[in-house]
Amino acid sequence: MKLDLLAFGVHPDDVELSCGGLLLKEKLNGKKTGIIDLTEGELGTRGTAATRRLEAAAAAKILGVDIRENLQMADGFFSNDEAHQRKIIQSVRKYQPEIVLCNATADRHPDHGRSAKLVSDACFLSGLMKIETTDNNENQAAWRPKYVLHYIQDRFIMPNFVIDISNEFEQKLEAIKAYYTQFHQSGENGPTTYISTPDFFESVIYRHKWFGKMIGVKYAEGFLSDKMIGLENLDALIKQNT
Predict the structure, then answer these.
(1) How do residues 69-95 score in pLDDT, each as one tens digit?
(2) Is 96 exposed, middle or buried (CB count within 10 Å of its CB: 0-12, 13-18, 19+)?
(3) Is residue 234 in a domain?
């Protein structure tokens, strides 16, 4: 299956927190979308790999993605080396996305920045014909996405551009809340972590409001691109509410 957008997240819930609204918007626009998690988040203080799998499946259903897979890399200990790059290359060639989304290049969690470089490097290498990979014992054709976009998750980073997700925001929140072991739940007694406090969830909402304010909408998601973003014409800049 060829996808239009393929989002990589180093941990299950990264994609939901950062670019779930864009996936929802593009799905409603008739695009094919998918998520590939690099790890099972097995080092997380709350929950287990098993509960994360259930949560990820529930979130994927809410987002309406066409595929969701997990590459089962070691949480906290994967590297940007040939073995791990080849796993990404196989996925990129399998689904041939036009656009890849992945973690920010710098963030509070060291896995995020490391995975961003891993995915970005692998997307470039995926376009080299002399790198041979197979899927189900069949040779894969080289494929390089047109863009690799980095979503903004936690650290304060000024985006290169933002996308209006006002209509999709409530559904995005429902996808985030599918990770019931990770985030604050009224009356629950699990260990307190950085992301399990009510303040963290409020900060997620405020960040999307802040990005939205930049373009005069209620909620937006922010992205970074190493490649220049081009417009076909100036009509793409015109918004009725600006």
Answers:
(1) 999 999 999 999 999 999 999 999 999
(2) middle
(3) no
The pTM of the whole model exceeds 0.90: yes
Q: What is the rounded CA–CA span in Å between residue 47 and residue 157? A: 29
Which two tokens mark 203? 């900060």
Contact call for residues 98 and 33 (beta carbons, < 8 A): no
Secondary structure (3-state) at 35 = strand
- Residue 107 to residue 112: CA distance in whole angstroms: 6
152 with 159: CB under 8 angstroms?
A: yes
Strands (E), 106-235: 134-135, 138-139, 147-151, 161-164, 220-225
Domain containing 160 equals 5-226
For residue 110, report the phi and psi dihedrals to the nearest 5 degrees: -60, -25
Asked, for residue 231, whether it belongs to a domain, the answer is: no
101-141 pLDDT, tens digit each = 999 988 888 899 999 999 999 999 999 999 999 999 999 99
**How many domains would you assign to the chain?**
1
Counting Cα atoms < 13 Å in the Cβ hemisphere of 160 gives 13
Within-domain flag for 181: yes
- Mean pLDDT across the chain: 92
Q: Are 100 and 149 contacting, i.e. CB atoms less than 8 angstroms apart?
A: yes
SS3 3: coil
Short-list 224, 216, 26, CA closest to 113: 224
Residue 242 lies in a domain: no
